[in-house]
Amino acid sequence: MSKELGKQTPYKTKDWYLKWASSVILIVGMLLTANNIYPLNLFISIVGLLGWILIGLIWNDRAIIIINAIGLSIYANGILNYYVNQ
Prior knowledge:
The chain is mainly alpha-helical and 86 residues long. The chain has helices spanning 14-34, 40-59, 62-84. α1 (14-34) runs antiparallel to α2 (40-59) and α2 (40-59) runs antiparallel to α3.
């Protein structure tokens, strides 16, 4: 399998750190979800999704922006439902 010329993943740049920090935050959000720690899991996950939306904007990658914006709206809906139904 050959690698495309000119295509390399950024390494130790601002977007590289943001990408990995956002990924770790999302993993923490998943762990909180698996352990039913609600609604903290939603707030943590939103932070990770916002980081990935920024990455999508930096990389000009619409797929990353769209999938994370949809995830953000789903989690925001969960937060809204949590506070409305208390």
